[in-house]
Specification:
The chain is mostly helical. It has helices at 7-26, 30-40, 45-55, 57-66, 68-72, 81-97, 101-119, 121-127, 134-154, 159-168, 175-200, 205-226, 231-250.
Amino acid sequence: MNVLSDPLHFFVVLAAGFLAGAGNSIAGGGTTLSFPILVWVGLPEQIANATNTLGLLSGSVGGAWSYRERIRRQHGWGLLWIPALIGGGVGAALLLALPSDSFRTVAPWLVIGSAVLEACDPLIRRHLPQLAPGERRLGAAMVSLFVISIYGGYFGAGIGILTLITLRFVGIMDLHDANGLKNLLVFGIKAVAAIGFIWSGVIVWSVAILMMASSLVGGWAAGHMVQKLDQGTLRWIVVAMGIAMGVSMLV
């Protein structure tokens, strides 16, 4: 399936990979941009979704690498790999086995709700400082991330914002620290899903490789840029992107 023979398609996919990689590194939502573009250039929806997952994988790597010093300083989140990897595999299996309407109906509201929750985060922390003991918070984070990871393996638009909220449960209150770990966990979720898609032969490799190159650059560049912002500014970028993604998904 040679959809890149048209020069316009080539440059549109290249730009989509860069912008989606940058968006995912900052807060998430790259899929909302790149997935419709892959459908527009002629890929069937399931193949576009699978190819997009692999194509944006390197963007998460670039974003995580730009946050590597912050990630090294974090502790107590290692158990989150278990639900992330298992959930990503389950989501990929669902994409290959089920019609695409199931998660698509709920996804916009998940994204919008998470953006609103992120906006209210300082108020929530101020009035509910002892929301739950540490053990219960870790358990809640693992359950939450498992559900998010299933969605992430299946489709995943807005998974970055959902993961940011989940990291609050394990006590990571600095939004920049949480953003670095978010990039790493999203990479794990998407990597497991991508392996399933590769095994099933639903990847258009020419498109995936082009997107991997451009999203790697976009994720790395945006990851460095966003760390220069204060937490308040970053929070409102996250909120704005979340609401915009949710509304665009509804439309």
